[in-house]
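Components:
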Amino acid sequence: MSRKLYMLLSILLVVAFALSACGAQATQAPAAEEPAAPAEKVTITWWHISTADDHKAEWQKEADTYMASHPNVNIEITVLENEAFKTKLTTVMQSGEPPDIFQSWGGGVMNEYATAGLLRDITPELDADGGAWRNTFASGALGVYAYKGQNYGVPWDMGMIGFWYNKELFKQAGIDNPPATWTEFLDDVKALKAAGITPIALGEGDKWPGMHMWAYLVTRLGGQANFEGALLRTGSFTDEPFVQAGQMIQDLVALEPFQEGFLGATYGDEATAMGNGKAAMELMGQWAPAVEKDNSEDKQGIGDNLGFFPFPMVEGGKGDPADAVGGGNGFAIGKNAPDEAIDFVKFLTSAENQATLAKLGVAIPVVKGGEVGLSDPLMIELQKTFAAAKYFQLYYDQALPPAMGSVINDSTQGLFAGTLTPEQTAQAVEDSAQQELK
Amino acid sequence: MQSLPAIPNIFKLKRGTGSPRRFQDNLVIFLFLLPAIVLFLLFVIYPIFQSIYYSLFNWKGFGPAVDFVGLDNFKNILTDKVFLIALRNGFLIIALSLFVQLPLSLTLAILVGRDLPGRVIFRTIFFLPYVLSEVIAALMWLFILNPDPERGFVNAVIVFLGGNSQAWLGNTDLVLLAIFAALTWKYFGYHMLLFMTGLQNIPAEIEEAGRIDGANSIQNFFYITLPLLGSTIRTSVYLSVLGSIQQFILVWIMTKGGPVNASETMATYMYRFGFVRFQLGYGSAVAIYMFLICLIFSLIYQGLTRQPDYLTGL
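Structure:
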């Protein structure tokens, strides 16, 4: 429910932002260097989407710590719910006034902003002192925030999507081990259904939760070559794996595995169903346990009953069963960001702060030395699965240009609703690709 | 006694066409209007022309618009199935508003505007939803329509009465009706208030005369009350139609136009392209269509309804 409140809040904040916009510029302008004199007052605007209580508090604490040691720096934090953030960010981007530091998933959307000159290139800072900062990151994760060799942001979390399941409910349905193949998966869905349990929680009103299922099936069926072919235009999004994945989705939908009203449900509803033990599994990223907890009635989630299994392999698929679809969270740097903003991001991504986030179970560290904070066995398991992946597929709606991501989200919802055939879905994505991937 | 008829003449003489006094008057009028004109030009007229300009481009919303595509956006919109759904939904909401919402408001206005016991309390209760912000109303209806009978009021009632719970907002066939219910709940109080004001302007003597002449209350309503409410009804219809075409907040919060575009309105369609898909040029073209539809409707409607008002003739 809090998402809606944040929508209200965001409206208030838009007003607040409009009012503060004039003031902020004035403080940034005098960047003239006077090393001896007391440093100029600098205000850094920081937008993040970590709405879970402990995570939000931790970031506030880190900002307070930084401000205490840098009295000239004032950090203004804006916390937004995911969807509200995307909406609001688009608006300020179109007005050419990005925040100094803001949530980013890298990939297509970030590239779009970078091309429009809205982001600050932080490659020099990463490479300073012989690449001291750059070398602290896992290079794959850092690469997601690079476009044409230049970094416009840095990651603070990188993980993968997989199935989170309720062990107790699986046991009630007589299932001993989580499924390893798609056939077993369908059998388990039927078994759960027969036991009167909702097999899968899905917030398809938000579209991206179901999109990931389609993307994973495509990855299992076609592997790396298939997606890259379509992306580089040597192949097409109407190739066999894209169509077949749609067919498999519709076969799954025919079993009615989702909770009542899933087409209108949000991701929040999905997490609520899982957190309250009303559904047996959900396909979601590494943040799922934290959100389930936060959305459950007792704020505890289902505790030790929660388990993780990777997306099942598909018999006859060309993709390696160890391949992972995922992505992570990071911060992009706005074009007007002062040097202090970058220094602050450096502080945020220090090994100690990364370890703290890991300890809270809200991030899988991307900085060497941060993994010592991982204590949750589920997260350790997820990180191992992730590390074993030979091919890492970034989320489709992030890897591709935003217009395509939106078309993919819209058309896969049509698959789940049965209003689009697998062929039509693939064709819609291909039509958009022909426009966007020139 | 000679001076009295001379007074109006003084004014006439001094303010004749082309006289300095007349010029001064016009200047004063112009200066008083200036702030409003400037604001109107800046925030209404200028953005309209800006939208027209951008609608001719394939433009993402960042940086300068360079990819000129002519009228392609306008052509593509008309062939997009989703836009046609949005258009159909718009007309459906209009029809439902006119034939369900307004008659309901009128009935209630007659009930609480006249001699129902405790009418002040009812009036307040009926008007309350309109006072709430649309966002809050939408959130409330999300709770009320929750598909889980343990959480959603409507489904709890249905299950209690022995029926099957429905996913009101997750079912492509039901979603528009569910949204219309919320819309009606939100706006009937407003139209009720308009009608009540209209009713108060009808002199009681006329209806009394009707009764004395032997008209029963139904005849009284159709032959006296309804015709005399003419101007109010016209205003109500006008506001209702324009409001339906532009409906956004309630729909966006409750369903985002989904599932699979089943509750899409022109406004949500425009927003999706402008701000979700980063196709601001295309979104601008949708805005132009909306603008034209509203404009044409307004002109036709005003032309059609410019008829003598019964009351002013009295």
